[in-house]
Amino acid sequence: MRVTALAGGVGGARFLRGLLAALRSSPDPARRGAQLTVVVNTADDVTLHGLRVSPDLDSVMYTLGGGIDEERGWGRDDETYGVADELARYGQSPTWFTLGDKDVATHVVRTRLLAEGRTLTEATEQLCRRWRPGARLLPMTDDVVETHVDLAPVPEAERAAHDGEAGGRRVHFQEWWVRLHAAVPALAIEPVGAAAARPAPGVLEALRDADVVVLPPSNPVVSIGSILAVPGIRDALVATAAPVVGVSPVIGGAPVRGMADACLSAIGVPTTAAAVAGLYADLLDGWLIAEGDEAPAPGPRPLAVRHRPLLMSDPAATTALAGAAVDLALELAGQVVPA
Ligand code: GDP
Ligand code: CA
Question: In terms of CB atoms within 10 Å, which of 1, 103, 118, 303 comes out highest?
Fold first, then answer.
């Protein structure tokens, strides 16, 4: 069985760990032996102090490889910050993006491989030789795509609350998200470079040849939305014979963690499970929503909706959630689901 997932960073990574656990512990031999391919968002990538940083690839790699800081859900465990302290003493900016010492090593390796002419796909493969994440991690593209955000003007009286930001300018997504905590409203969010980007090698094949495609509860705008903005990927999801099953990142009108509501507002979409499904209406076959949330209105494609506990509160709950997504996919594919 071939399972392909799209993913952002923390939410995607957590879900994928549950997905691997659900597959590996299944009584069904096909699921136990399933191969997982993950197409990861790279539009959050940023160059800091000359180093190429791929936050979502690293979150997935560290989480599945057992090196993640469990509390935060991102970055390395047992981290220290000597390099960041020294950079600050040299007056080097930005200082708002956390770069741990162990994490810096990952970025040094990636930056060096890219400088030597390797692709991001190849650099990721090399990093994964250490981490053995138990899945094939593919960047969505080897081309440079960077999400930029148009900030609303910030009234003078409110600037102090936003790190002195006056707004009315375009910034990298990371500056909006990390420095400004997405608290300054975004007028527009654009994955710059996406229109001219090509899917990385293996991405379209992984979607076409999959038996099951899963959309974890990743940010629908800046994680899944960025992946879908790479020409060819959306079409491959629409066309694949595999059922495409998604998990809502919104429960009861709120993103469970983080500021995804600020991203949805920027594109004029309400923060509801139904509205998020609407963003995928052309490609989605199954949708898991929380108890009490409303099913989406009928769209262009038949959609099977199930109510399930959607909180990834601990590994067992996350494994059960991911297992429910696979169950629904196999049910839609007409395969018997063992009890
Ligand atoms: P990021 O790149 O680190 O922001 O991570 P992702 O885009 O992969 O995932 C972030 C999203 O995960 C957030 O927008 C939340 O809506 C969602 N999320 C976080 N925790 C949970 C949870 O426990 N359950 C569900 N259903 N969604 C969650
Ligand atoms: Ca991200």
Answer: 103
Please report, for residues 149, 265, 325, the alpha-carbon distance to residue 187 in angstroms, rounded to integers and kept in the order given. Answer: 7, 9, 34
- Do 81 and 209 have their domain in common? yes
Closest atom of ligand 1 to CA, residue 259:
14
Q: What are phi and psi of 130, to 5 degrees?
A: -75, -45
Q: How far is the CA of 337 from the centre of ligand 2 (A)?
A: 33
What is the longest distance spanned by two Cα atoms in the chain?
62
pTM (two decimals): 0.98
pLDDT range class, residue 336, cuts 50, 70, 90? low
> pLDDT over 90 for what percent of the chain?
98
Indicate whether 167 belongs to any domain: yes
pLDDT tops 90 at residue 335 = no
In a domain, 338, yes or no: no
How many angstroms separate the alpha carbon of residue 121 from the centre of ligand 1?
A: 24
Pocket test for ligand 1, best of 57, 68, 174, 223 (most atoms within 8 A of CB): 223
Half-sphere exposure of 303 (CA within 13 A, CB side): 23
Residue 339 has pLDDT above 80, yes or no: no
For residue 115, report the distance from its CA to the centre of ligand 1, in Å. 32
Kindly tell me the sign of the dihedral angle through the C-alpha atoms of 187, 193, 196, 200.
Answer: negative
Whether residues 265 and 281 share a domain: the answer is yes
Q: Which residues pair with 39 in a beta bridge?
A: 6, 138
Distance 43 CA to ligand 2 centre (A): 8
Say if residue 201 is in the same domain as residue 187: no
Same domain, yes or no: 128 and 59: yes
